[in-house]
Amino acid sequence: MADSDMFKNFKEHSVAEFFKKNRQMLGFSGKVRSMTMIVHEFVTNSLDACEEAGILPEIFVQVEELSKDSDHYRMTIKDNGPGIPKTHLARALGQMLAGTKFHRYIQQRGQQGIGGSACVMFSYLTTGQPTRAVSCCNGRRISANIGIDFKSNKPIIEDIGEEPTLETGLTVTAEFKDVRYERSNHGVYEYLRRTALANPHCAITLVEPNNERVAFPRSIEQNPQKAFEIKPHPLGIGTHDLLEFAKHNKENRRISAFLQNTFSRVSAGKVDELQALIPELDFKKDPADLTWNEAELIVKSFSKVKWIAPAMDSLVPIGKTQVETSFRNIFNPEVLVVTERSPKVYRGGIPFMVEVGIAYGGGLVSAEKRGEVMRFANRVPLLFDNGGCAITETIKSIDWKRYDVKNFDEEPLAVLVNLASVYVPYTSAGKQAISIEEDIMDEIRFAVMEASRGVQKYLSGKRKAHEIATKKKVVGRYASQLATDLATLSGKKRSDIEPKIAKIIEEKYASEPGEEEETGPAGESSKKEDNPDSEGGDE
Amino acid sequence: MADSDMFKNFKEHSVAEFFKKNRQMLGFSGKVRSMTMIVHEFVTNSLDACEEAGILPEIFVQVEELSKDSDHYRMTIKDNGPGIPKTHLARALGQMLAGTKFHRYIQQRGQQGIGGSACVMFSYLTTGQPTRAVSCCNGRRISANIGIDFKSNKPIIEDIGEEPTLETGLTVTAEFKDVRYERSNHGVYEYLRRTALANPHCAITLVEPNNERVAFPRSIEQNPQKAFEIKPHPLGIGTHDLLEFAKHNKENRRISAFLQNTFSRVSAGKVDELQALIPELDFKKDPADLTWNEAELIVKSFSKVKWIAPAMDSLVPIGKTQVETSFRNIFNPEVLVVTERSPKVYRGGIPFMVEVGIAYGGGLVSAEKRGEVMRFANRVPLLFDNGGCAITETIKSIDWKRYDVKNFDEEPLAVLVNLASVYVPYTSAGKQAISIEEDIMDEIRFAVMEASRGVQKYLSGKRKAHEIATKKKVVGRYASQLATDLATLSGKKRSDIEPKIAKIIEEKYASEPGEEEETGPAGESSKKEDNPDSEGGDE
Predict the structure, then answer these.
(1) Mean pLDDT calculated for residue range A297-303
(2) Helix or strand (DSSP H, E) at A179
C-alpha cells in the first residue's frame, strides 16, 4: 500500500462525534445504568443551580414507559431553580464542553459541561427526537426543542416559544430507548434515595412507570452553607498552571502583585520570602515575560514556604449531624461513628476534604448487603464503576482485622465516604469513579481508620463485657461451695460468708471494663483528630 | 445573586482543554502508570502503522533519567514504519481527535486519534517543552518540534527540517516530569514484555535508565494476516446509524442499492426479503428521503432476517499456536488449554471474537502472583483499571469450583483473554478497561468456561489417578496376607497365588482411569466447539 493511501482518510472529529462513538465513556452502557445516568446528569445540574441561586431545591422526576418491548420511555426532570436564560439555553443543552462550570474553582456537582448535552445526544441517538426544554428565567418562559449537530458540536434549536411568567425553573422532557426502569441497586429509585440521604435540604418526588409516587421529603429547611469560588492555593500549582495564569493576567504589572492577587494565602510577606529564595528573579518584572524556567523556580520555592491551608469554608461537607441522622434513619445501627477530616490540598492547589460514617449492627444485621460501601463525591451518589474507584480501593486495602472486623464483606457494616472538592478527578466523563490518587487515598484511609477505631472500641468493649460476664458466671458457680467449705473451716456461719464472696466477685468483675471504658453508646462521634494514626504520615 | 451573574461565566472549551484538565481520563495518573501510558500510545501507533504498510515491526524504546529528584525523564520511541507525511505530521501529533482511525471499521490498536497528541500535551504540561518528531516518509526526512494550542486544539509546529532519506520510520523524543521508571507489574518493562507475548512478529528493544539493554526478539518472521476494513453488518445497526449512512450516501439512488452497497451480507435476495417484511416502504425511493420511522422499520426488519455472520477474516486473533508458544515460554505450565471462539456481532454491526488461554501448574507454582489474569484488546496489553473491566468481571463471575478450582486467587493459574474487534468499547480515553457489555461478557464467559473444562479434565484425571494409586497401595498391603490365607485354605502354593492376586490388582486399577482418559498432555488444545456449554444460550 502506498503511504499516501494510509493518510487519505485523515480526518478531524468533534468532541460530540467522539462521545457519540464512545457513549460508554459517558456512562451509557447497559439499560438500567443508562437511565440512571440521565437522572444523574439533570438532577446534579438542578441541585447546583438551585444552591447557587439560593433556592431550596424541589426536584420532580417522572419516568413513563411508552412501549414495553422496545424499552421506550419518556423522562421528565423538573426543578424550581433559576432557569437558564434564552441566550444560553441551546448551548447549555446542545453543545458539549460549553457551560459555566468548567473553569471555576468552586465545589459543585457538575464540572465538565458535558452531562446535559450527553443526555440530549443519547435521546436523539436512540429515538431521533429532540429534547423539549422549558426554562422559566428572569420573568420569561422559554420553550424549545433542542438537538446537537454532531459534526460541528453546535446546538440545533427549534420551535421556540416565549411568554411571560412568574415562575422559575427548568423542565426537561425527552424520549429514550435502550434504557430500562428497575428498582434495583443501580436504578433511578436507589440513586434518588441516596441523593436525598446526602442532600437533606432537597425535596425529591419520583413518579415511577407504574404511576406510583415516591416522595423523599426534605428534613432540613435551609440550604447548606453556600460553596464559594476560591483562588488556587500555591501548593500543588504546576509550572504550566502558573504560566497560564501569567498569560491571562491583565491587572498586575509585577510578578509580586500577580502572585498576591492570583493565588490564595499569598501575602506581601510571603512574596518577600519567595523573593529571598530566588534572588536571581526580579519580582518587579511583568508576569507576561515569565519563562518556563523562571516559573519553575517559583513553583519550586512554593514548596519551601510555610503556607496557611486553603480556605476551609470553600468546602461544604454533608456534615456530621446529617450523616448521623441519615444513617440512623436508614439502618438504625447498634453503633455509629462519623469522622470529618480537616481539608487538605492536592495537585493544582485544589482543596478537598473527606468525611466518613461507619455503621455497625442493628438494622444492618438483616440487611441484604453486608460490608456495604456508599460512595459520594460532592454529595452525588456514585453507583457504578466501583472497581477502579479510589474509595473502594482504599477500603479494600485496609487491614480490617486490626479493627476487630474479621471479614469486611461478611459483617453487618455500612461505610459512607464523601469526597468534597472544588475539583473531583473522575476516571471518565461518566463521573462514577474517583481516580486512584495518592493524596486522596491517604485522606480516605485516615478517615476510615479513625472511624473504624471508634467502632472497634465499641466492639472490643462489647467482647470484653461478654468475657467478663462469662468469667463471673463461672466463678459464681463455685461461690456456694466455697461458702460452705469456708464455714466448715472457720466455724463461722455460711450465711455470713456467702454474701461477702458474692460482693468480692461483683467488685472484681465490675471494675475491669471500666478501665478501658471509652466506648461510647451508639451514635457517639469520635473526636476530631488531625493525626489520628501513628503509622500514617499525615504530611 | 442575579441569574444573569451565573451565566456571565458561560464559556466554550476545546477537547484539548478538557483533557488537559482531566488528564487522568487519558490514563495520566500516578508516575509509573503515566510513563507506561506514553510507551503504550506510541508503540500501539507504531505497530498499527507497520502492519498496515506491511512492514515487519522493529520498535526501539529508550528511557533516560535526566534528574532523579524531580522525576525528569527523556523518552524516545522509534519504529521502522512508513512514517507520517509532512502534511499530516503536525496534526497527527498535535491535535486531538484528528487521525486516520476514528471512523474506520477495521481492527486496529488505536481507534480514537487522541493518544499521540495526549503524550505531546503531557510532555508540554510537565516540562514546557515541545515533542521532537522525525518522520522518514516517501523519501523525505522531516524533523519538527510539535506542541498543542490548548484553546483551539490546533498543532504548533516549529523548527522544521527536511532532507532526502532512504529510510522509513517515525522517531518521537520528548521530555516528561511526573513520571517514573520501575520494573514493576505496571511499568514499561512489563508492558513491553506482554506486547511481545501477543505480537510475536515484533522485535522490541528497550534501553532502561541504567543503560541496560533488553531485547524482546521476534519469534515469527512474518506479520499476521492483514486486518482489512469491512462494511458494517446489518445486525446491530441502529436507526441513527442507518440514517447517517443514508445522509452521506452519494452513489446509490435507491434504498435497495444503498442497502446492498453500504452493509455487508446484504444481497439482492435479502433486499427482497426485507421489502416483503415492509411492503409499505418503497425500496426504490432515494435513501436521502428516509424518515426516522422508515429507518426504524428497516432496522427492525434486519433482526427478522437470517444473515450470514460478518467476515471472520476481518478479525486477526493472536492465534492458538502463538498463545501456546508464549505461555510455554513464560510459565512452562503443567497443563495448557487454548480456546478460540468464532466471531460474533454486537451493537453497530461490529464483529468481535474472543480467545482464551489457561495455564495451570508448572512454573506457575512458584510464580509471585496466583490466579493471574492477563488482559489484551487487539493484542494490546491492558495493565490498568482491571476493576471495571469486562474481562476481570467475567472471570470473577465464574463459579470456579465447578472446574475443580477451589479458590481462583490462590491457585497456580494464569488466564489470558484477548478481545479482537474492529471497535473495542473502552471505558475511557485511557483505553485500559473494556466496558461491561453483555454480548462481550457472554463470549468471554463461554471461552473461559470452554478452556476451563480442558483444565478440569486434566485436574480431575490427575486426582483420579492419585486416588487409584492410593487404593492400589492400600489393597496391595493385603495381597501378601491374602495369598498366605488362600494358600492355607486351598492347599495350593503361596508362590503360585501371590502373582495372580498382584495381576488382578494391576488390571483392576489400571483400566479405570482409561475410561475417562480424554485428559491431554500439557499443551493439548481443546477442540473448537461453537456451543461449548449446555447452560449458556449462545444466541
Answers:
(1) 93
(2) none
- Compute the nearest-CA separation of B459 from chain A (Å): 30
Q: Do A339 and A387 meet the contact criterion of CB atoms below 8 Å apart?
A: no
Distance CA B235, CA A121 (A): 22
Q: Any residues with CB less than 8 A from the CB of B483 and at least 6 apart, and which?
A: B494, B497, B498, B501
> Which domains are present in chain A?
15-216 (3.30.565.10), 239-302 (1.10.8), 312-455 (3.30.230.10), 457-515 (no CATH)
Mean pLDDT of B211-217: 96
Alpha carbon distance B259, A422 (integer Å): 51
Q: Between chains, do B138 and A4 touch, taking CB under 8 Å as contact?
A: yes
Condensed to tens digits (0 to 9), the pLDDT of residues B431-457 reads 999 998 888 999 999 999 999 999 999
Question: For B179, which DSSP code?
Answer: -
Tell me whether 0.85 is exceeded by the ipTM: no
Of all residues in chain A, the percent with pLDDT exceeding 70 is 93
Contact (Cβ atoms closer than 8 angstroms) between residue B379 and residue B181: no
Which residues of chain B lie closer than 8 angstroms to A17, CB-CB? 97, 102
- Sorted by sequence, the CB contacts under 8 Å of residue B470 that are 6+ apart come out as none
Angle, vertex CA B71, rays to CA B70 and CA B74, nearest 5? 115
**Nearest beta carbon to residue A388 from set B49, B127, B385:** B385
| Other Cβ atoms closer than 10 A to A438 | 12
Would you tell me which residues 136-155 of chain A have a C-beta closer than 8 angstroms to some C-beta of chain B?
137-138
Spatial contact of B224 and B108, defined as CB atoms under 8 Å apart: no
- Does residue B424 have a pLDDT over 80? yes
B65: Cβ contacts below 8 Å, ≥ 6 apart: B72, B73, B181, B209
pLDDT at B119: 97
For residue B537, pLDDT beyond 60:
no
Q: According to the model, what pLDDT value does residue A355 have?
A: 96
Residue A539: CB atoms within 10 A of its CB come to: 11
Q: How far lies B153's CA from each of B17, B21, B93, in Å?
A: 8, 14, 11
> What pLDDT was estimated at residue A404?
86
Instruction: Show the cell assigned to B515.
Output: 475410561
Q: CB contacts < 8 Å between A and B, how many?
A: 203
Residue range A77-104: mean pLDDT, rounded: 90
- By CB atoms closer than 10 A (0-12, 13-18, 19+), residue B409 is exposed
Output b/e per residue, B221-259; b: 16+ Cβ within 10 A: eebbeebeebbbbbbbbbbbbbbebbeebeebeebbbbb
Contact check, Cβ <8 Å, A13/B113: yes
Residue A292: list chain B partners with CB under 8 A.
127-128
Per-residue model confidence as pLDDT tens digits over A321-354: 989 988 888 889 999 999 999 888 876 568 899 9
